Amino acid sequence: MQTRASEGQNLRDQAYRGYTKSLLEQQIRPGQFITQRELVQITGFPLGSIRELVPRLEAEGLIRTVPQRGMQVPQVDLALVRNAFQFRAFLEEPAARLFARDASADAIAALRESHERILSRHEAGDDANLMEDAEAVDLSLHEAIIDLQKNEILSNAYRVNWIKIKLIRLAETRLYVPMIPAVMGEHLRIIETFERRDEDEASRAIASHIETARRRAVEF
After folding, report:
1. Closest alpha carbon to 100 in 128, 140, 141
2. Helix (H) or strand (E) holding 3
3. Is 80 exceeded by the pLDDT of residue 173?
4. Which CATH number characterizes residue 95's domain?
5. Angle, to 10 degrees, between the axis of helix 180-195 and the axis of helix 199-219?
6. Three-state SS at 127
7. Domain check: are 168 and 97 in the same one?
């Protein structure tokens, strides 16, 4: 049986997921000012849960309180692009090096298979859910690199930053279908370094991939 404390925690976690889902589905827009009562209407969670949620959102940079104006959703601007992609590089470059050293051959093979399957679907003109599936495969590589370290603090920090990356992509740089071969190709070059167990090249390949994504976001 759940205690009241655990039930409250579950409700707060659900409210958090409701907020981030609304954010990524663009029910809440970057830069928008919003009240707690509006968050109740959008997420469907009670005011008490929303009030307890706000400090977590502020700590993670997913909302900020502006004096005399209320709460504001993060704006997608050059500062967010710079900060989010720099943070990615700090986390992923050393993690890629460790992944090249420690990941199982099966894990690496599974990454190659999923990426090649997306490329085959693209070449065959299979557009049904292709972009959604390609984005999931894109994320799967980065999560695999981070999660192999089995460090909850690291994984949580990466997850929060990925929400910000997603906001940037939603603004203008989403993984459009014509970009799939280029993005999957970059990933396959990273996977090749894992297959060779080349730690230095793995770090350089992931750094190059992140920089390409950052430049693309800045151009937009």
Report:
1. 141
2. none
3. no
4. 1.20.120.530
5. 160
6. coil
7. yes
